[in-house]
Design brief:
The protein is an alpha+beta fold. It has 10 helices and 9 strands.
Length: 382
């Protein structure tokens, strides 16, 4: 077994870390306080190649392996969860479905702008009454000649209402299968389509400088050519998209845990009580030791899942495990980091306060921790 990263992967980590420290860290607190999505930062992330990392060069992608992409998400999350969310959703949920399931015409039309960071794309799945129960979706699409008429709404959709958003992929019910279950189909809906409205959501506890939207479809008409893949493939496309998305959420958890740990270790080495650095006290040292151990475990689990994907081997069980473990890992490490900082850990001037808040979404998004345990239990034969 070879656990070494390639020279290219090491270079990606080095360069993305440098970018995150120089471009994101100085403005992260300000953007979080203002609940401001930064188009400027997003375009800069596009300029250094953080969008379309796993996409072929034909569509202006970077043609890299999945581990390289995950390392990039991890390094951004090490500094700021909001910007990592923009990258993770932009790639796994925005670009991914178009790249893997779109027609050649659709790929040529949309992917170049998305891969170079000129534009963003949303993935409309979650609804007000359909979260973990994706089968509870109520958004419908009815065929009318050569067009489909979409009605319904979506909620908590990342990157879907920014000034850079080009459009969304939306899943809708298009009929009933022979077994009586709904037939789902995904459609491409461009911004500016009549009857389609995207509204940014504010007052979030976490990811306050990422863009989150509610989507409304009121007799939205799209041509049949806007079907993603084939009619009835929507549920399959959703599952495949979420499998990849779980890896990026895991990377956010791993990177966030690393960032919180780094901050806690640095603080503990400088903060003195009773005449010595608090890192010398066993109660603090053990928290840091546990954090370091769990981060190492999480990184190995996540990278193995990505390695399986890169080698075109089954990775779905490992993706669910990595998402679950790394999400909850960040919660434990961020909690230790705040405790080590004491009262200062409750102040916004210290990054651990933001890490503590940002973590909670990871237990919920891309399938809750409870759903991941259901998925894993099914894979192991329960």
């Amino acid at each position: 077994m070879d656990f070494d990263l390639t020279r290219e992967q090491e270079m990606i980590r080095k360069e993305v870390r440098k970018f995150a420290q120089s471009e994101i860290a100085p403005v992260a607190l300000e953007l979080d306080e203002a609940e401001e999505f930064s188009s400027d930062l997003t375009r800069k992330m596009g300029e250094i190649g953080l969008f379309g990392m796993f996409v072929a060069e034909t569509y202006e992608g970077q043609a890299m392996d999945y581990i390289s992409y995950i390392i990039a998400v991890e390094e951004i999350a090490r500094v700021d969860g909001s910007q990592a969310a923009t990258i993770a959703a932009g790639n796994s949920l925005g670009i991914g479905p178009l790249y893997y399931f779109g027609s050649e015409e659709q790929k040529q039309k949309y992917l170049p702008k998305l891969c170079n960071g000129e534009a963003l794309w949303g993935f409309g799945l979650t609804e007000p009454t359909a979260g973990s129960d994706a089968g509870g979706s109520k958004t419908t699409a009815v065929c009318d000649g050569n067009e489909w008429v979409i009605n319904g709404s979506k909620i908590f959709i990342t990157n879907a209402a920014s000034d850079m958003t080009l459009g969304v992929t939306v899943q809708a019910i298009t009929g009933t299968r022979p077994n009586g279950k709904p037939e789902y189909t995904c459609f491409i809906v461009e911004n500016g389509t009549r009857g389609f409205k995207a509204v940014a959501m504010k007052k979030k506890m976490m990811w306050r400088s990422s863009n989150t939207a509610e989507l409304y479809f009121d007799d939205v008409r799209v041509p049949a050519a806007n079907i993603l893949g084939q009619q009835g493939d929507g549920f399959h496309q959703m599952l495949k998209t979420l499998d990849g998305g779980r890896l990026s959420i895991a990377a956010m958890g791993l990177g966030g845990a690393q960032g919180a740990y780094d901050a806690a270790l640095k603080y503990a080495q400088k903060r003195e009580q009773f005449g010595q650095p608090i890192s010398k006290f066993q109660a603090v040292a053990f928290k840091l030791a546990d954090s370091a151990m769990e981060i190492e475990c999480g990184r190995n689990l996540l990278y193995k899942a990505c390695w399986l994907r890169d080698h075109k081997r089954p990775f779905e069980k490992e993706a669910a495990m990595a998402k679950l473990y790394c999400s909850e890992l960040m919660g434990r490490v961020a909690d230790h980091a705040v405790q080590i900082h004491g009262g200062y850990g409750l102040m916004k001037e210290y990054d651990v306060e933001r890490f503590y808040r940002d973590q909670k979404l990871l237990d919920i998004g891309e399938g809750t921790s409870e759903v991941q345990r259901i998925v894993i239990s099914r894979y192991i034969g329960c």
